[in-house]
Amino acid sequence: MEKNQEIKIGMVSLGCAKNRVDAEMILYTLKEAGFTIVADVAFCDVAIVNTCGFIEDAKQESIDEILELASLKKEGKIKAIVVTGCLAQRYQKEVMKELYEVDAVVGIGANGDIAAIIREVLEHQKVESFPEKTELSLCGGRVRSTPFYYAYLKIAEGCDNHCTYCAIPMIRGRFRSRPMEDILQEAKELSQKGVKELILVAQDTSRYGEDLTGGKSLLPELLQRLCEIEEVGFLRVLYCYPERMTDELIDTFAQEEKILKYIDLPMQHCNGRILKLMNRKGDRAALSALVQKLRQRVPGITIRTTVMTGFPSETEEEFTELSEFVNEMKFERLGCFAYSAEEDTPAAKMKDQIDEITKKHRQNLIMEQQQMIMTEHAKKMIGKTIPVICEGFDRYAECYFGRSKADAPEVDGKVFFITELTKPKIGDIIHVQVTDTLDCDLMGIYSG
After folding, report:
1. Residues 287 and 358 in one domain
2. Of the residues 34, 100, 235, 429, which has the fewest C-beta atoms closer than 10 A?
3. How confident is the model at residue 3 (pLDDT cuts 50, 70, 90)?
């Protein structure tokens, strides 16, 4: 067999930022084992697909990627295909059976064994490995795949919320908080390497520490201690649950200058009956009060949420209530998903499933409505000068682009700008005067 360093490994990582962190840890393990990491899977010996299995569209994307790599394997351009991530964990036996071109199917608990698994497949062995989910390490080195100026900081694994539509607890296991000291150390090291924006992620960041303390969230303390690290620039927090937005946590957002005034609060719905069926808490009144409190106590905050249409038995009246709620709250950022019936989840077995056409129609109505709301928010920014992190130059549009503090990577919008004098560098935080809008995005001028 060839020496490790002569074997080129490529990876395609799909799905959420949490999955991306797992991918980065896998690549670090392989690099430490002596393998060569390449950016393009078309030029590798072994292709790894780090899959997503959250909803039907994500599963199909994973399968399509595997089939595309299978074509390259058939042409002799790559030697082996390894499938890991949520789809592999969830459909352990089906992947190899249905996709015979796959050489290894690896559960998340086997990520640390990836080097040995690759050696086996290169010896023409088929491998299926599914250790306990808790074998997935919460700590370790990473080969970062994000631009140098931002990085995801995963603070926990798994989930204990058991929303009836969600398969994540089955796939990822119980909620496990990462040791605080380890998080702090990695944050310091990343910041020393030039990372300006650390983005905290977990399936439920607001639950951080509850498993360590017997029920008390340690997220406020973690945020405060991160802010005390001199090298740390900005902190962005994703995936907080509305019912866990305590006064202590809100005060932390309000008081700590390093925490971006941006919060991701997946609400899913506003109707009390639907939320109860989802095994989620609250109702329209409680959620409205929370939004009002956040805007009062953290002036200028950007609130991002996600909602779901077509949950089993959702009536036209309940959908109308959701639409009215979205219009009333005027969230700065919002994503809407049509309900996807996932195998073995309680919601998939509920009566009165909504047909696909109705689910998608309701989704489109919400997004059309939100498009107008976000356009209104964008127009209010005209004339203001805002900090923007420069992310690149669009040679077709002949302008630079970047993100404001109100925009998280990959899920939110952009700021497009031209420059009169000084050319900014990628990663620079500059000040752009907003002069116009392009749908929901901003356009402006950087004067240097």
Report:
1. yes
2. 100
3. low
